[in-house]
Amino acid sequence: MTEAMNFLDLALYIAFAALALGQVFSMVRLVLGPTYGDRILALDTMVINALGLVVVLGISQGVQIYFEVALLIAMLGFVSTVALARFLLRGDIIE
C-alpha cells in the first residue's frame, strides 16, 4: 500500500511541476507575444493551467471544494477570453 501512495505522490509532484512550467511558458508568450492573438491564447492557456493546478491541489489535499472553485475559474476564464477577443477585434463588447 505504501508503494501506491508513493507513486501517487510522485505523480502529483510531476503534475504540479508540469503545470507550473506551462504557466511560466504561457507568461513568457503573454509578455513577448508579437500579436494580440498570441496574447489572448496565452491568457487562455494560463486559465487552463490554473484549472489544472487547482484540480491537482484538490486531489493532493483530498478536499472537494477545489473542484467547485475549478468550475468557477473555468466559467470566468471562458467569458473573459471571449470578451477580450471581441473587444480587440471589434472595439466593443456589447453591440
Q: Can you put this structure into words, describing what you see?
A:
- With 95 residues, the protein is an all-alpha fold.
- 87% of the residues lie in helices and 0% in strands.
- The protein has one domain (2-90): Helix Hairpins (Orthogonal Bundle), CATH 1.10.287.
- The model has no long low-confidence stretch (mean pLDDT 90).
Keywords:
0% strand; Helix Hairpins; elongated; 95 residues; mainly alpha; 3 helices
CATH architecture type: Orthogonal Bundle
Q: Distance N terminus to C terminus?
A: 59 Å
SS content category: mainly alpha
What proportion strand? under 5%
Number of domains: 1
* Tally of strands: 0
Helical run tally: 3
Name of the top-level CATH class? Mainly Alpha
Estimate the mean pLDDT confidence: 90
Examine the coordinates and then state which fold CATH places here, giving the name of the CATH topology.
Helix Hairpins
Shape category: elongated
Order of helices and strands: HHH
**Poorly predicted ranges (pLDDT <50, ≥5 residues)?**
none
The description of the largest β-sheet is: none
What's a quick, concise take on this entry?
This protein is mainly alpha-helical.
Helix and strand topology:
Layout: H1 2-32, H2 36-61, H3 65-90
